[in-house]
Design a protein that fits this description.
The chain has 406 residues and is of the alpha/beta class. Helix content is 48%, strand content 11%. The structure holds alpha-D-psicofuranose and manganese (II) ion (2 copies). Alpha-D-psicofuranose (PSV) binds next to loops. It holds the Pfam family AP_endonuc_2.
């Protein structure tokens, strides 16, 4: 991309009233956490394909994640999942991460893979199982202390498949009981991010099925509990941007799990199917970013952007690169929205004008802008190409097949 293309872009945006220096600063500050499980073998319930060169342990997952960060400057932290990433000494993993220029991000407990949890973990009728599940939550708080992680991301598979199978109200109380125990064990710096999901693996009811239930729990627990929005966890047609705006306004939007989907919780590469949705999510975030209420601005600053994907058929590292780059592209486009223009049109009751002012930003080609910031940051202009031209993908083949899987 030539300097001329960028000069033209800058001129065009400035003429629209966009402060390009601000846009660039915001783009350079964007941080997206990648998930350790996205580097390992994962798949569908039908088959987990074993890929060659997949990391054999958490240390190698961080090495792969470092590739994504080094080439993009976007992904400085990695979420871990316990026990998938269980190690004897977390300070060793932390040092390894730091040596690679990374940090350990959110700690994700796993309360869905144990035989004991078939009929629920923290909401199981068996109090011994509930205690076992709660102990795991507490173990994750201890791990977060060692890893220096601020966030604990909680997703529960708990739910029922048939009417009558469980007492929904009792289960709600048990959920609250377990979360309260965990909440009380957290340090003041920690945050509990409560993730909801409308269905799967439970097909009749899920204990935390939507944002309202997660929000209600968070509110009852206290200010350190917030809601985590996984973009794949809604019924078709749900207006996720609306949920985002609502939760920001309540100062309870803790973070995102970004992924793309066509049907259900497909966990595909972010922005591969629905980039406009991602753009509209950022539109809501950015329109709250300049709110006169400092609490709202603070809430926006503390949103954790995380990826939650599983790469079944594609190469893991390029897939993760594609995802973080797609997030960056949509964020860049959203930064080109002229908010004053949108609200002036809305106030005039100019419905088409307001819609146009939002959509027009989406239609710009932001390649010259992204190339310019990458150049300023000393990054490759095309991180994907740089990765594919590097020997890393071939070098890791010595790991063979049968690496870490979920
Ligand atoms: C299962 O739906 C899930 O994808 C949730 O989104 C969690 O965040 C993730 O797995 C990791 O536990
Ligand atoms: Mn998720
Ligand atoms: Mn999911």
């Amino acid at each position: 991309m030539s300097d001329r293309a960028y000069a033209l872009f800058e001129e065009q945006q400035q003429a629209r009233g966009i402060n390009i220096d601000e846009v660039k600063a915001k783009l350079k500050a964007l941080k997206i956490e990648t998930p350790s499980w996205g580097y390992g073998d994962s798949g569908t319930r039908f088959k987990v394909f074993q890929k060659e060169g997949v990391p054999r342990n958490p240390f190698e997952k961080f090495e792969d994640a470092a590739q994504v960060h080094n080439l993009t400057g976007l992904a400085p932290s990695v979420a871990i999942h316990i026990p998938w990433d269980k190690v004897d000494d977390y300070s060793k993993l932390r040092n390894h991460a730091e040596g690679l220029g990374l940090s350990i991000g959110a700690v994700n407990p796993n309360l869905f893979q144990d035989e004991d949890y078939m009929l629920g973990s923290v909401t199981n009728t068996d109090s011994a199982i509930r205690h076992k599940a709660t102990d795991h939550l507490l173990e994750c708080v201890d791990i977060a202390k060692e890893t220096g992680s601020r966030d604990l991301s909680l997703w529960f598979a708990d739910g029922t498949n048939y009417p009558g199978q469980g007492d929904i109200r009792k289960r709600k109380a048990w959920m609250h009981e377990a979360l309260s125990e965990m909440y009380n064990a957290m340090t003041p710096e920690m945050r509990m991010l409560i993730e909801y999901k409308c269905f799967e693996p439970a097909f009749y009811h899920t204990d935390l099925a939507d944002w309202g239930m997660a929000y209600n729990m968070a509110q009852k627990l206290g200010p350190q509990a917030e809601v985590l929005v996984d973009t794949g966890h809604h019924l078709q047609g749900t207006n996720i941007e609306h949920i985002v705006a609502y939760l920001i306004d309540e100062k309870r939007l803790g973070g995102f799990h970004f992924n793309s989907r066509k049907y259900a919780d497909d966990d595909l590469i972010v922005g591969s199917v629905n980039p406009y949705e991602l753009f509209l999510i950022f539109y809501q975030i950015l329109s709250a970013a300049n709110d006169s209420d400092a609490g709202i601005r603070n809430a926006v600053d503390n949103i954790a952007y995380m990826i939650d994907q599983s790469h079944n058929i594609e190469q893991k590292i390029p897939a993760m690169l594609r995802s973080v780059l797609n997030v960056q592209t949509q964020y860049a486009k959203a930064l080109l929205i002229n908010h004053a223009e949108v609200s002036e049109a809305a106030e005039r009751h100019d419905v088409l004008g307001a819609e146009d002012a939002v959509r027009r930003a989406f239609e710009f080609d932001v390649t010259p802008l992204l190339h310019a910031i990458r150049e300023e940051q000393g990054l490759p202009l095309d991180p994907m190409k740089a990765y594919l031209n590097s020997s890393y993908g071939k070098d890791i083949l010595v790991r063979g097949k049968g690496g870490a899987s979920w």
